[in-house]
Amino acid sequence: MQIVRVYAGDDGESHFEDLTADQLAEIVNRVGEGAINLTTRPPGHFVDYHLAPRRQYVLHLAGIAEYETADGSTRRLGAGDVLVAEDLSGRGHTARSIGDEQRYSLGIPLADQ
Question: What pLDDT digit, counting tens, does each position of 78-112 carry?
């Protein structure tokens, strides 16, 4: 299982940080207000640079997502992997569906720290 955080750095760009299961355990205890969203994306779906819509963690259920930051760093996440999305300012990140499979994920809101 991969656990990856995407966050806005002081340089105004988004960056990745690999987290441990222990770090994730602390994060998921900070559930915030708002709906838990089930998102589906078709094969080939692409979203250009964007910010996280809120502080949330995204649990990947099926399919493969590839995220990229401005420095060209990428992370591919599949079923069981978690993205902690905290880049609420700056340039953001891209997201694309990889392969021929529909992509499903759950977005769970996190409280502000």
Answer: 999 999 999 999 999 999 999 999 999 999 999 98
Q: Which residues pair with 86 in a beta bridge?
A: 7
Q: Which amino acid is at 76?
A: R
Task: Please give the mean pLDDT across all residues of the chain.
Answer: 96
Q: Which amino acid is present at 46?
A: F
| Strand order, beta sheet including 14-18 | 14-18, 3-8, 82-86, 56-62, 103-109, 37-41
What stretches of the chain adopt beta strand conformation (E)? 3-8, 14-18, 37-41, 46-50, 56-62, 64-68, 74-77, 82-86, 93-98, 103-109
